[in-house]
Structure formats: structure tokens, C-alpha cells
Amino acid sequence: KNNQMSGEGVKKYADGSVFEGEFVNNQRVNGILKSKMGEYRGTFVSNIRDGKGTFIYPNGSVYEGEWNKGLREGKGKMQYTCGGALLNYIGDWKNDKPHGKGRALFTNKTRYEGNWKNGLMHGNGTLMLCDDTVLEGKWNENANIGKLNVILLGGKSLSGTLSINNELISKKSPVTVPSLPYFSLDS
Question: Pairing state of beta strands 167-169 and 62-68?
Fold first, then answer.
């Protein structure tokens, strides 16, 4: 009616992208959109990724979860396949970045579980290093602030604060804490 596409169909766009799925009044509602940016399978609102869906990036990385106005937002998981130090992230997203509670696994087997803000470790969290050293404390944009509890391999426990050169200053003896992994959440 009035040249408006409704129902199941396929539409090719001028930029080379192709949508196959359900249309209502010429608007994508649910289906698969393939473009140079990757492939999205899920729901749309006003032709924009919104609701639940899976996005497969050209490099093979995959995000599965909730979307809001084209951005990763809500609960979701991201599996990275190349580049950067991050293997995967599962948790809360806001404005296309990890934000809220979540856990990450890095390529060097380091793990972090706790609070995130704008894609960075921020707030209370636990960092488990690849040598099984556990760092529990408060984080500010990937850096530890304030008191840090350190549990070393074998169960030895220390508390203190980190110095500028990553030495744990405690009442017992200084311990050098391995450098924290740098990572990028860009896909």
C-alpha cells in the first residue's frame, strides 16, 4: 500500500548492504542486515538496531545481547577474536561500552570481575592475574586506588596500597605487583 513494504522481504540499499526479514511500513523490524560494517541478526526500531540481537564484526568478533538506538546497551557479551588484550567481556553495557557489573578475560589469562565505567575497571573489583595472584580493591579507570588486598599463590595474604612503581606498601614487606594489562574494548 502506498509503495510501503510490509511483511517478509529482501531489500538492497545503495551502500551495498542487504536486509532480509520482516518489514512494517517500509521499516526493518526483525531480520538480518549484512553490510561492510558486519552482520546484525535481531530486532530493529525505526530501522536502527534496538532490542536483542547479535552483531558479527568483519574481524570475527561477536557481540550478543541488548541494543538501544544502535548502541550496545543493557546485558550482553562480547567475544573478541583478534587485536588487543581482551578475549571476552560479559556483563552490563552503556553507550556502547562495558558499564556496570561485568567480568572480563584477557589474552594473558588475567581475569577481572567487578564494576566498570565507560569501558574501564572502575569501583570495587577483583583482578586475578595469570600467576593466580588475586588483587581485591577499588579501581579508578583501570588503576587501583586506596587499600588493596593481595592474595598470593599459596594463600599468603597482604594488605596495603600500591606505590607509583607498583610496590604494595604494607606493614609486612613491600611486594611488587605485576603490571596490569592494557586493553582496548574496540572491536
Answer: unpaired
The pTM assigned to this predicted structure is 0.80
Query: Confidence band (pLDDT; 50, 70, 90) for 77?
Result: very high
CA distances from 159 to 43, 113, 141, 155, 177 (A): 48, 19, 21, 13, 12
Q: What pLDDT band is residue 180 in, cutting at 50, 70 and 90?
A: very low
pLDDT digits (tens, 9 = 90+) for 140-157: 888 766 676 777 666 666
Whether the pLDDT of residue 5 is over 70: the answer is: yes
More confident residue, 150 or 124: 124
Concatenated DSSP letters of the chain: -TT---EEEEEE-TTS-EEEEEEETTEEEEEEEEETTEEEEEEEETTEEEEEEEEE-TTS-EEEEEEETTEEEEEEEEE--SSSSEEEEEEEEETTEEEEEEEEEETTS-EEEEEEETTEEEEEEEEE-TTS-EEEEEEETTEEEEEEEEE-TTS-EEEEEE-TTSEEE-SS--EEPPPPPP-----
Distance CA 148, CA 126 (A): 10
DSSP per residue over 54-74, as a string?
EEE-TTS-EEEEEEETTEEEE
